[in-house]
Specification:
42% helix; flat; mainly alpha; 144 residues; two-stranded antiparallel sheet; single chain
């Protein structure tokens, strides 16, 4: 059973554009545990394969993208005063900020699309969200 171990230095090297100032290694580790709950980190709990002996690193990629998204989203929420949602408009004169809350009908697409890493995560996991087809008759074409 392969488990991805969080490597703080490797993460920082893979995502150098993420401002890690204010994130201790322990705080990042806490966010990692949240990413593990989202993606799973064992063969029994995760939908994504991970087998370093066969050069299969999909689970690690998804965990790191989820972590990058969580770190940036948390920092953004702190900057907005703890408001959760998507920043929809900002004004400068007499200072105004509008936040559009996430909707439940989107299956969290709006949440993941708030950062570049979150959007990459959402796109890479699309194959796991697509359902299959079930044909219960001999002819399955709709016009036959």
């Amino acid at each position: 059973m392969s488990v991805v171990l969080f490597d703080y230095e490797q993460f920082c090297a893979m995502f150098p554009h993420i401002d890690m100032q204010g994130w201790t290694q322990e705080a990042a580790q806490l966010q990692w545990s949240i990413a593990e709950q989202i993606v799973g980190n064992t063969d029994n709990t995760s939908f994504a394969p991970y087998d370093p002996s066969k050069n299969v690193f999909e689970r690690r990629t998804l965990l790191y993208l989820a972590l990058a998204h969580l770190l940036q989203s948390t920092k953004a929420n702190q900057a907005y005063g703890g408001l959760g949602g998507r920043l929809s408009s900002v004004s400068e004169g007499s200072v105004s900020v509008s936040i559009q809350p996430y909707t439940a009908k989107s299956s969290t697409a709006e949440y993941w699309a708030t950062t570049p890493e979150g959007l990459q995560y959402w796109l890479l996991t699309a194959k796991y969200r697509l359902g299959g087809r079930l044909y219960t008759s001999k002819t399955y074409h709709p016009w036959t």
